[in-house]
Specification:
heterodimer, A: mainly beta, OB fold (Dihydrolipoamide Acetyltransferase, E2P), 2 domains, five-stranded antiparallel beta sheet, two-stranded antiparallel sheet, 1 helix, 7 strands, 31% strand, B: alpha/beta, 12 helices
Chain lengths: 144, 388
C-alpha cells in the first residue's frame, strides 16, 4: 500500500499543438476544458478541427466541472522515464460531461482504486508553462 | 470467382540470428541479411526481385544493385504482405522482397521499445509507455469479465516455454516457466509483471512472395495466403487506449476487440472458420493480448478467453497451440517492424511443416496477427498449405 502523489516538475512535459492550446491554457488557469461539436454534441477523443461524427467544422470549448469517475488505471512500478517517481497511476477518467481524459490518480493508496470511483480534478505544474490535470477521490467518494 | 490470391505464393522466409545485441550490425545491415536469407530460402537471387517492400526500400534497391523496380515505403507488416500479394495478383510485380530488422535502436533505456516511447502531448506527462497503455486495456477486461493475472500468467508461461525449447530464440534455455514464476517476477505496470511483457532484442527477417508459376519452378514448399485484413482505431500511443472506444466503420466492435473485423474478413476470404485453424501464431506484446485475440477473432466467446487458456487449449497438444517459436516474449522483438513479419514467417514454417521445435503435426491452416489493442491496431492473416 503506497500513497499516490503528483509528479514533481522535471518529468517530460507535453508540447501543446495548435488545436490543443486552449486545453493547456485552461489547465494552467485551473480550468478543465473539452471540445464539443456545436451541431451534434459529439466530444472528440482529442482536440480536432472536424467533428468525428458529423464532420462539421464548428467545435467549441466548454468548461468541465472537474468531476467524474475512474474508468481504467494501472500502477506503474518501473518508470518509463527516470524522472518519474514510482508508484504512479495513469488513469482514464470519464468526466461527468461525457469526455474521457488520460490522467493519473493521486491522493489515495494504490489499493483504493476501483472502477467507478468518484474523482475530482486537481492541477499540478509540470514545468513553467505546462500544468497537468490529476484526479483524486472525491470527498465522500464511493462509486456511484 | 477464383480466390484473389490464388496466383500468389509465399516462397521464402528467413530469420537472422536473434540476440539481445548484435554489435556488428545496424538496422540497415541486419535487414539486408534478412532479405538475402529469405531469397536464398526461396532459391532466388536479388536479380529476380522486381518489388522491394522493406524497411529501407529505396536504400535496398541501391544496395542490391536493382532497378528500375517498384518500391513500397511502408514498414513491413501483415497489411504490407497483403499489399505485396495484391501487386502480384494485379500483374504489377512477379517477385516481391520484404524485410525488416533492428540493431542499435535500444540505445539509451534498453527495456522499452523506443518507437513506443511517446512524446505525444496527451500521454507523455503522465508517464505512459507501452506496458502501461496495454495495462489500461487489460484492466477493463478484468473488470468486465473477471479475467485474472493467473490466466494471463498461463499465457506468458506457455509462450516463454515455447521459446525455452527453441534454439533460435533469444531466451532459449531460460525456462521452463510456471505461471507462478510469471506472477513472482517484479511488477512493471499492474497487472503486467516483467514476464508478462515482450522482450527487446535485435535481429531481422525476410519474406519473399512470387507469382505461383514462378513458385512451381522453385525448390521450396510454397505457402498460400488464404485471407487477411487489417484494423485500426487511430494512431498508436497518442491517446488514452480506451477499451470501449468506437468508430463508425463498425460501431459494434470496440477498440478492445480491434482486429475482429479483420478476422471476419479474413475468414470470409478464406471460406474458413476459427475451428479450421490448426495453429495460432498470435502477436504477443503482452500476455493479456492473447486472451483478447482469442475472443476478438472468434476462437471463444467474449469473456471466455481466460477460461479458454486455463483449460489448457493453448498448451502444446491443446486445441490451439499459440506463438510456437516463443514470440516477442522469448524468440525476439527486433524493432519497428521485424517482429510484425516474424509472426507470418512462423505461420509459413508451420504449414510447410519445417519448424524445428513445436511443429504442430499436419498443420494446414495457421492464423497470424500483429498489433494490439493498446496500440489501437491489429492485422490478421490466414496462411495455408493448400493453394486456395
Amino acid at each position: 500500500m503506497t500513497t499516490l502523489l503528483a509528479q514533481q516538475p522535471g518529468t517530460p512535459a507535453p508540447q501543446p499543438g495548435r488545436l490543443s492550446q486552449p486545453y493547456w491554457d485552461g489547465c494552467r488557469e485551473g480550468e478543465l476544458r473539452f471540445q464539443r461539436c456545436d451541431v451534434c454534441g459529439t466530444i472528440p477523443t482529442r482536440p480536432s478541427a472536424i467533428c468525428p461524427h458529423c464532420h462539421g467544422r464548428a467545435l467549441s470549448w466548454e468548461r468541465s466541472a472537474g468531476a467524474g469517475s475512474l474508468y481504467s488505471w494501472t500502477i506503474v512500478w518501473r518508470p518509463q522515464h527516470p524522472a518519474f517517481v514510482v508508484p504512479y497511476a495513469p488513469a482514464i477518467i470519464e468526466l461527468d460531461e461525457g469526455a474521457f481524459l488520460m490522467s493519473a490518480m493521486i491522493g489515495c493508496d494504490d489499493t483504493d482504486l476501483a472502477a467507478g470511483l468518484r474523482v475530482e480534478v486537481e492541477f499540478h505544474p509540470a514545468s513553467d508553462t505546462i500544468t497537468l490535470p490529476y484526479f483524486r477521490p472525491s470527498a465522500g467518494g464511493a462509486a456511484r | 470467382m477464383p480466390h484473389p490470391f490464388r496466383d500468389v505464393a509465399i516462397v521464402g522466409v528467413y530469420n537472422t540470428v536473434q540476440a539481445r545485441e548484435l554489435p556488428d550490425h545496424d538496422s540497415a545491415s541486419v535487414e539486408l541479411e534478412g532479405a538475402l536469407g529469405a531469397l536464398a530460402d526461396a532459391g532466388l537471387t536479388p536479380r529476380d526481385v522486381d518489388t522491394v517492400c522493406t524497411q529501407f526500400s529505396s536504400e535496398d534497391v541501391l544496395a542490391l544493385g536493382l532497378g528500375p523496380c517498384t518500391t513500397r515505403g511502408m514498414l513491413p507488416r501483415i497489411t504490407s504482405v497483403l499489399d505485396a500479394a495484391a501487386l502480384i495478383a494485379t500483374g504489377q510485380s512477379d517477385v516481391v522482397l520484404m524485410a525488416a530488422g533492428g540493431a542499435g535502436v535500444y540505445t539509451d533505456r534498453t527495456a522499452t521499445a523506443p518507437w513506443t516511447r511517446p512524446a505525444h502531448e496527451f500521454v507523455v506527462g503522465h508517464g505512459l509507455f507501452t506496458a502501461a497503455e496495454f495495462a489500461l486495456i487489460a484492466r477493463r477486461h478484468m473488470l468486465t469479465y473477471g479475467t485474472t493475472p493467473e490466466q494471463m500468467a498461463i499465457v506468458a508461461a506457455t509462450i516463454r516455454n515455447n521459446g525455452h525449447v527453441n534454439p533460435k530464440a533469444v531466451y532459449y534455455g531460460r525456462g521452463p516457466y510456471t505461471p507462478e514464476d510469471i506472477l513472482a517476477s517484479r511488477m512493471v505496470a499492474d497487472p503486467y509483471h516483467l514476464l508478462d511483457c515482450s522482450t527487446t532484442s535485435e535481429g531481422a527477417c525476410g519474406l519473399v512472395l512470387a507469382r505461383a508459376d514462378r513458385a512451381a519452378d522453385l525448390a521450396t514448399t510454397p505457402a498460400w495466403i488464404l485471407g487477411g485484413a487489417g484494423d485500426s482505431m487511430g494512431p498508436s500511443y497518442h491517446i488514452a487506449p480506451r477499451w470501449d472506444m468506437q468508430g463508425s466503420t463498425d460501431p459494434d466492435i470496440p477498440a478492445g476487440y480491434v482486429g475482429r473485423r479483420a478476422a471476419r474478413r479474413s475468414f470470409a476470404m478464406a471460406g474458413l472458420h476459427p475451428s479450421d485453424v490448426d495453429v495460432a501464431e498470435f502477436y504477443d506484446p503482452f500476455s493479456f493480448e492473447i486472451i483478447r485475440q482469442l475472443e476478438a477473432f472468434g476462437f471463444c466467446e467474449d469473456g471466455e478467453g481466460g477460461p479458454f487458456v486455463a483449460a489448457g487449449e493453448i498448451a502444446p497438444g491443446g486445441s490451439l497451440p499459440i506463438t510456437t517459436d516463443g514470440g516477442l516474449m522469448s524468440f525476439g522483438h527486433p524493432g519497428y517492424a521485424a517482429q510484425l513479419v516474424q509472426r507470418v514467417i512462423r505461420a509459413v514454417e508451420q504449414v510447410r511443416g519445417s519448424c524445428e521445435t513445436m511443429q504442430v503435426p499436419d498443420a494446414e491452416v495457421a492464423i497470424c496477427s500483429n498489433g494490439g489493442a493498446g496500440a489501437l491496431f491489429t492485422d490478421v492473416l490466414l496462411v495455408g498449405r493448400e493453394r486456395p
